[in-house]
Amino acid sequence: MAFRKHLTGVSASAVALALVGGFPAFAAAQTTQPETPDVNEEGQPVADEEDDGTVIIVSGFRESLATAVAEKRNSDLILESVTAEDIGKLPDDSIGESIARLPGVTSQRLNGRANVIAIRGLGPDFSQTLLNGREQTSTGDNRAVEFDQYPSEIVNQVVVYKTPSASLVGQGLVGTIDVRTIRPLEATEQVFAIGAKGSYADLGALNAGSKEFGYRVNATYIDQFADDTLGVALSAAYTDEPYQLQEFNAWGYAGEGTAANPFVIGGSKSFVTSTQLKRFGVNGTLQWEASPNFMVTVDGFYSNFDDDQTKRGIELPLAFGAGFDVDPFDPSTGSTTTTEFGEFATSGTFTDVRGVVRNDVFQRQADLYSGGINLDYEGDDGWSAFFDFGYSRTDRNELSIESYSGTGYNGDGFDPQGDGTSPSDTIDFVSDTNGTTFNPTLDYSDPNLIVLTDPLGWGGDRVQAGYYNNRIIEDELFQYRLGVAKEIDSFISAVRFGLNYTDRSKDLTPDEFFVSLPNGATEVAIPQGALLRNTNLDYLGLGPIVSYDVRDLIADGTLFLEANPSNDVPAKAYGITEKLMTAYLQMDIEQEFGASVLTGNFGVQAINTEQNSTGVAFTDVDGDGVQDRVDLSLGDNYWDVLPSANLSLRLDSGWVFRLAASRQIQRPQLDDLRVAISYGINNNEADSPTGLTPFISGGGGNPRLRPYRANAVDFNIEKYFAGGAGVIAAQVFYKDLVSYIDGSRTIFDYAAFPLPAGQAPATTIGYLDTEVNTGGGDFYGAELSATVPFDVFSQTLNGFGVTGGVGYTKTKIENANGDIDEIPGYSEWVANGTLYYDLNGFSARGSVRYRSEFLADFTGFGGSPTRRLARGETIVDAQIGYEFQPGSTLEGLSVYLQGQNLTNQPFVSQFNVPVPEAVIDYQEYGRRFLAGFTYKF
Q1: CATH class of domain segment(s) 14-402+473-511+568-936
Q2: How far, in Å, CA of 521 to CA of 917, rounded?
Q3: Are 937 and 892 in contact (CB under 8 A)?
Q4: Which CDD domains match (predicted)?
Q5: What are phi and psi of 97, to 5 degrees?
Q6: With 60 as the cut, is the pLDDT of residue 666 above it?
Q7: What is the pTM of this model?
Q8: Quick one: 572 exposed, middle or buried, by C-beta within 10 A (0-12, 13-18, 19+)?
Q9: Closest by alpha carbon to 596, among 650, 545, 669, 667?
Q10: DSSP structure string for 187-201
Q11: Which of 132, 734, 793, 924 has its CB 3.0 to 4.6 Å from that of 24, i.e. a possible disulfide?
Q12: pLDDT tens digits for 98-108?
């Protein structure tokens, strides 16, 4: 058979579906593949002919929806997808936002950007992301891909697989996301497109040196040569955009919830954050059809990512400030409210408060390289084979600098008046469901009052005026894939066999310093020339604060870096390697039963995992009382066997019934596999796992950790109508989680470790506080989704339609202690919907997405993960645009205007005191407006 169909005049965005059958997406899943939608004489996608003989032409956003519906209908896996409306033009401003609008999918915002994806209510730890069918490294600490690393302008399609097949390598527990770029021989015509957009953040330029306006530019070139047997595609995009954030953050809440001792804010660490995101991405693909049966595809992707944040604010020790010389809270000076869980102080006054003015910097720079080569053969005798090599690498530097200033060193106070007084603050406060606001008496913008120092004595014996933490991370992945297949004219329509080998390594090198004052000083005035425009904290009632760039003060010698000699620093370093050998055997099915057709596949995937971690531990080996460095290497080797089956019964009436069953896994977070362990002698007989003392106990990572594992069943009912342009789908699913990962205490054999000096342990069997595999539980739910063009009701509504869905998920997971646990990222309800109009070049749409409360991931200082309960949120976006029609002098030009987060929905997380006023984070991102154009020559 010929390798591909020559579809004369078809637009590249319409024929993107062929990616599912061509490299490298075919490497992700050898299933019954979707067909390219029908096209008219002008090459535009059309729906099936109606009974009256009319033909419906779709383009723009409706073309994107029609493509997604066709892919959903024709695939044997349960999936959702989104396709670019045109070259370099996804339906949304970012990949994350486009994916978050798919049924059963949502996102967590980071700095106002939707770049962390949750499928079926579960967070990114439970899904896997591929680029063109290949596994990828990440700009984050773990496996989860942050979608900021991929410019949306170079992406042509994203497919979310909710069920796996045996040939889907790199699958996740709740889903697999495959990001796909353009293939030049699928376009069959030359295309040159450019685009640009400007952005505006309505919060304004919150920090000195920040911006409120930004821009993006992109270009794409596609061409074919040598009688359409050689194709080239090049895409490039550059982003320079600001993001602004006003945040309230609480340390936590003190008190017992009684009238005499109500819950009250313990401390506050609130910032104004300005982020400047600069990203350059380029993607190139070369395809050569060496013969009608043999295709060679070479592609590469590079992204340079620079996320520069300025964070300025005040840290206030309040009810937790007994150690900081703060008077105990007196309920008589304020008011309280009665909640279901006890009394909560809604207002009051703190005295003798010594605040820490913070001028911090956080900068993440990453270079991501990805690419590979694919050789694909399809014979005329039914035999086919492919070889694929993929490579991915991320080099990342994550720099965090904290800088402290205040009225004086270690609570002593600076005395600018020379009258012997030590200025501290008396602060009134009001707490409600939006956080806490304050009314101070001090002027934190006065450079005569605020000096560089260690205001609360955090440095102990040293004067610590800040901290410098640079995390250097290298992540590299090689993937080799080989497969053969034979088509058969029987109930078994094809047999597929393949091998995959993946070799991944991830290394962390910490580089940490104290930020110190020169010449043993305890206080240094902020140089007049270093002072910047004050930062306004009026949204908290705190007024303006002094502002400067700590990097400038380090560069000019006002502050200097002093290496941190603590063993805790090298103990954070780790190296992790993971080698996976995968073999699969899959049978495809196609059989007619009267007016219906049964399609699908069944098979098995076997994976051998060899994981290893190197790191450093510290213990007193020689008995001199000094902790000695011990280099460690530890790992494990195990097998997973993953059977799967996908069946689809397709009726001529447009009904499709699907049943899928599979065994699924999700590998642990990479940093949970680190070997870095601190341990020593324990003489507490009650804690001994063997009853023998002394024994060894410690804490750290777990290089022997196994994956999450589940047995899953899915059932779908889908009805396609409107000539294939519309669909209503209902799905139920159930997963029996047989292995879960939870932080706990586990029995651990220290035989491979040097024994601590001194008292010899009675046994090397001790315990380790770490992440462990535990029993699981149930995970089940239902989804309802629809894409409905309104012209099915009346032709007067032609161009109008709606698409979206709602998902309900329930979990019951037991942790290591037998208690019911909350799964990270889990939302019970997720929903989204888009109402649109798209006809004759004019388009308008409004979108809403909702998720109920969930356990959100945050990154603490030093990269340590933190999880807190986030409130539910509803995000509203809108877009209008116009594409100049054929025959117009501006044919090829489209213009559009977008508004994001139009209701200014905040991101809010709660403290573990279940009181609405006990807010930990209240982050306001503001609204964003974008205006742009694309022009296709």
Answers
A1: mainly beta
A2: 42
A3: yes
A4: ligand_gated_channel
A5: -65, -40
A6: yes
A7: 0.88
A8: buried
A9: 650
A10: T-S-EEEEEEEEEEE
A11: 132
A12: 888 888 888 87
